[in-house]
Amino acid sequence: MKFSLKYKLLISFMAVVIVVLAGVTVGGSVLIRDYFVDAKRRELTDKAYEMARVVNNYFDGRITYSQLHDFVNSADSFLDARIWVVDNDLNLVTVSEERPGEGYGKRRSAAGIKPSPMRLRENSRMGPPWWQSRQPGQQQGSYGMGMRGRMAAPGNSQAQTVEPPASQPPAPIDANLQTGENAGNPIVLDVGKGRQQNSAAAAISLADIKGMAEIIEEIKANSGKTWAKTYYHPYYEENMLMVAVPLKRTDGTISGTVMVNAPLDDINEFLQKIYYYIGIAGLAAILLAALLSSYLAGGIVRPLRAMQQTAAAMARGDYTTRIRVTSRDEVGDLGQSLNALAQDMEEYVRRLEQLDKMRRDFVANVSHELRTPLTIMHGYNQALQDGTITDPALVKKYHRVMGEEIMRLEKLIADLLDLSQLQANGLTLDIEEVSLAEIVDNVVTLLKPRSEEKGVSLAACVAPGVPPIQGDGDRLTQLALILVDNALKFTPPGGRISIDLTVQDGEEVLTVADTGTGIAPEDLPYIWERFYKGDKSRASSGTGLGLAIARQIIELHGAKVDVTSRCGEGTVFTIRFPLEKKY
Fold this sequence. Notes:
single chain; 47% helix; 16% strand; kinase; EC 2.7.13.3; HisK_dim/P_sf
């Protein structure tokens, strides 16, 4: 199945966008979560140290248990964190109770709050939660955790007994906290005095709570150290951040640990909002990326399709098709290169067709040039052999005509041989000092009778002091004869031919100008080709080899040639010979 390059690019772009968005989302969420958890940890650590000082005051007997419990409950409400205080034996000293619906942060309803493990442990002996246990006008600290206990206040040796209100129903018993025969016995804690009223009752230990083994190991492993950890709390059954601070006394001893357990629900909800907004932004980014990718892919594929069509046209032999290039990039460069290739191929094919046409014309011309003298010689020779012509004057004339035709054949064959040798570099020039001024004068003298007979003015103008050049005298004479002879052929009676020889910019310049019929612009590029004849009406006037031979002579002498012509006004050949030897 053929899969378009556009869709490949589109899928690649979209895959990159999705991978980047996923990486940003995952990495950003991890960084944000770590940031907030670390900030929460620092906050809880600071507050835990403050609570540790208050708990030490309780251990020193400066505050009552009720005051301690009210303090941790107030801190719970402010921090939205459950506070556990344990002694060195991992027995619970006090546990805060979450207050529903009020306070700092998001609060749960009373039905969703997990009761204190100490409240569940006391079963029916417990009173209502701390926020419901005060009577109107009662001072804070009148009730502790709802249990009946003796709390020693500073400066007062008499204990206070706190009874739960009779109107409150007993709290349910948590199956995780059942510890045998002591499960229903009331416990009276007097941690500040280190005594218990009922020796038959045991203190509540962390080991009595199901699933706390890992926390116990952490407390033992980090005894006397501050530590923090995020984990799934086995009692509250939710993910929490725990910060534990040791209770260091003034004498350096450790009396226990303060554990602050903060739920991570707020952070998780915040992250969910981030995921939501990132999802919306990501979806918008994906749609925008899809549109942009489709546009970019189309901008790449469309030129390629045009190039494919152009290449297919070139394979069929059509070199006229071009690509519309609109971009300045690698694709645009490729399109321009393909256009240049098509143009070059079109020009090459046109030249091949032109050369083929010239070859056909040459065959026709050569056939005519050979057939005409052969026919004349054959007829005259047959007449002489048959005795048809007996008049001495006619016999002499026939012999003269046959001699002229033989010379024409010899010239044609000589021109073909010369051109072949010149193009194959098989001809060695006889280099010597040659005076172009003398060559020009000789050519004018040789062709003057013909020009006068035709009624064409032929004149030469040689600048004084023109130095000789290095070259082959015979070939340079042949070059001048070809140029002037061509000018005579195509200059009508009354016209003028001028030959100028000057020195310009360190070069010797030979100029042959005429006022003849001129050369058509479409024929001008091909006048140096073999067998080419621009004036088809004058096909019998030559074979089309003269200018081809002339160009080879010019190139062998290291010269440069320039031709300008206008139809009906004439033609100018300008040849620049170097004064220094370059061949």
